[in-house]
Structure formats: structure tokens, C-alpha cells
Design goal:
By secondary structure, the protein is an all-alpha fold. Helix content is about 75%, strand content about 0%. It has 13 helices and no strands. Helix 2 packs across helix 8, helix 3 runs antiparallel to helix 9 and helix 4 runs antiparallel to helix 10. The relative contact order is 0.20.
Length: about 350
């Protein structure tokens, strides 16, 4: 007789234990199979932008982009819309305050949403992909290209000015040089982020030195007792609010670029600290320089003389630097080239 017949309950119990163990093993294996894609995804290498923008580079990106041709041209528009020296200086200070408040708002957004792209990243989080796409489309195809074209055309005009008479350089020559500048800046930014930031620092230092020459020259004139139209203060002030708003429009053109650092947030070293520090240093520095440069202009030229010239910086140089007036056109060329580099560097993000 088969003995297994007498072991039925025990064998059945053993089979049940083995089945439960096998089920647990299969369940564990199944769970492992379900989790493994997530683990593999987590282990995938993420492509990140290298953090090569330090505090000095951040300050240079803001200040270097803001200081372009505006401070050499915009004072005429601000003065014509305010009518007085006093209100003109108030408008320049007010534009600096507006830029500072906007930058502080962007600073908070940049630390809360630490991604490159600036407005694109903020619109994406706040309003969704459709509005972010529309902004990116307009920025890539309209805003940035037109801004680069204007800045580089201004660079070409001032770079060629010393080589031509009062009639100025031919339009075709200016456009060709502007194209060369755009291609050169593009090549620099494509080659290396570090090289692009070094170029930005160098040109920012150069334009600050140029503004320093104008400021020191104005202080020297004031020490000699020549105050120009500064003594007129608020005489002739225009009280029409809409006209004064145009003065702010002209002034804010010279402050354009205060938001550029937020476009490269992912590349900033320690953005929680360096982003606000760069903003708190760069914008007050630019505001101080702009106000002091305007005081220097008013100390050397009368209001009527300023309104009659399209480029007050050149006239100031002819009055004070005389034979060395070529320094200012070259400085404006440096300023616009640095602004174009900052615009392309940030716009590519």
C-alpha cells in the first residue's frame, strides 16, 4: 500500500507553505520589476548648465547690458520732456528706483523658481505652456533680434565715426560692420560661457572708465566755478503728466537690461546669495553713474545746446577733451558692443 495516502493532510499543508512562499517571491519580483524603471529613470544623467557665473560676472552682466548708448543719447529726450535741469535729474533717479523695484521683484522670482529663461520660466509656472510659448516666440523672433540689430547698428555708427567727416559713414558700411559684430559675438558665446563672461567683464570695466572720465571732468568744471545751467534748477519745468511720462520712457531705455541676470539663473554660482547681491550692487552703481554724468553734461552745456545735438556725449568731449575727444566715440562703441554681448548671452537662454 502507498504510504502517501496516510500523509495527505501533512503533504497538503507543505504544499500550501510552498505555494505561499512562491507567491511572495513572485510578488516581490513583480514589485521589483515595477519599481526598476523608476530607479533607472532616477539614475539617468541629467543635463545641467554649468554654474560659471559668479558675483563679478553677474554684476557685469547687469551693468554691462544696461550701460549702452542710452546715457550718451537719452539725456536729450529726458530734458526735452521735462524742460528743466532739476526735474530731469529727478526723472533719472526715478527711473533707477523703478529699475531697482523691478529687479527686486525678479530677484524673488529667481530664488523661488531657480531656472534659466527669466520671464519664460515664470510665465510657464504662473500661466501655463500656451502663454509661455507665445512669449518665447515673440522674444526669439521679434524682441531679441530687433534689440540686437539696434545695438549693433549703434556700435557700427560710433566705431566708424572717427574715420569719416561730418557726413558720417555710409549706411551700407554701418550695416556690414553691424553684421560682423553680431557674428563675432555669436561665435564668442557659442565657443565658451567663460569667454563670454570675461568679454562682458572687460567691456563693462571699459565703459565704467569712460563714464568715470565724464564724471571727473564734470567735477573739475564745477570746482572751477562753472555751473552751466545747474543753477536754473526747476526753472522751465513742464507740468504736463503725459509729457513727463515720455521723459520716463526715454530714461528707462537707458536702464534696459536690469532683468538679464534672471535669464541665466541656473548658471549662477550660489544664486540664493549672488543673484540679490549682484542686483543690489549693479543697479545703484548704474543709477549713481547716470545722475553724475547728467550733472557733468549740465555743467558743461546749456539746455539749448543739449537739445540741439543728437549725441551730448560727443559735444561734451569736444568741449572738455578737445583733441582727445575721440575717446568718447570709442567708449560708446565699447558700451554698445558690451551691451550686445550681454543681450545675446542672456537671450540665448
Amino acid at each position: 500500500m502507498d504510504n502517501s495516502a496516510f500523509q495527505g493532510p501533512a503533504a497538503s499543508e507543505d504544499d500550501g507553505v510552498r505555494n505561499r512562499q512562491l507567491g511572495a517571491t513572485l510578488s516581490t519580483s513583480s514589485s521589483a520589476d515595477l519599481v526598476s524603471p523608476q530607479k533607472e529613470k532616477a539614475n539617468e544623467k541629467t543635463v545641467l548648465l554649468k554654474r560659471k557665473v559668479g558675483l563679478l560676472s553677474g554684476i557685469s552682466l547687469i551693468a554691462g547690458t544696461m550701460i549702452g548708448s542710452g546715457i550718451f543719447i537719452s539725456p536729450v529726450g529726458v530734458l526735452s520732456s521735462t524742460g528743466s535741469v532739476g526735474l530731469s535729474l529727478v526723472v533719472w533717479a526715478g527711473c533707477g528706483i523703478i529699475a531697482m523695484l523691478g529687479s527686486l521683484s525678479y530677484c524673488e522670482l529667481g530664488t523661488m523658481i531657480p531656472r534659466s529663461g527669466g520671464e519664460y520660466a515664470y510665465v510657464m509656472d504662473g500661466l501655463g505652456g500656451v502663454f509661455a510659448y507665445l512669449y518665447a516666440w515673440v522674444s526669439v523672433f521679434v524682441i531679441r533680434p530687433s534689440s540686437m540689430a539696434i545695438i549693433c547698428l549703434t556700435f557700427a555708427e560710433y566705431a566708424l565715426d572717427p574715420f569719416y567727416d561730418a557726413c558720417g559713414p555710409p549706411e551700407l558700411t554701418k550695416k556690414c560692420l553691424a553684421v560682423v559684430a553680431i557674428l563675432l559675438i555669436t561665435a564668442v558665446n557659442c565657443y565658451s560661457v567663460k569667454l563670454a563672461t570675461r568679454v562682458q567683464v572687460i567691456f563693462t570695466v571699459a565703459k565704467l572708465l569712460a563714464l568715470g572720465v565724464i564724471i571727473v571732468g564734470g567735477i573739475y568744471i564745477l570746482i572751477e566755478g562753472q555751473t552751466g545751467d545747474i543753477d536754473t534748477e526747476f526753472k522751465g519745468t513742464i507740468s504736463n503728466p503725459s509729457v513727463i511720462a515720455l521723459a520716463f520712457y526715454d530714461g528707462l531705455w537707458a536702464y534696459d537690461g536690469w532683468n538679464n541676470l534672471n535669464l541665466v539663473t541656473e548658471e549662477i554660482k550660489d544664486p540664493q546669495k549672488n543673484l540679490p547681491r549682484a542686483i543690489m550692487i549693479a543697479i545703484p552703481l548704474v543709477t549713481f553713474c547716470y545722475i553724475m554724468v547728467n550733472i557733468s553734461y549740465f555743467a558743461v552745456m546749456t539746455k539749448s545746446e543739449m537739445l540741439a545735438t543728437p549725441a551730448v556725449g560727443i559735444l561734451w568731449a569736444e568741449r572738455i577733451l578737445r583733441g582727445a575727444f575721440i575717446i568718447i566715440p570709442i567708449s560708446v562703441a565699447f558700451s554698445t558692443f558690451g551691451a550686445a554681448n550681454g543681450t545675446l548671452f542672456s537671450g540665448g537662454r
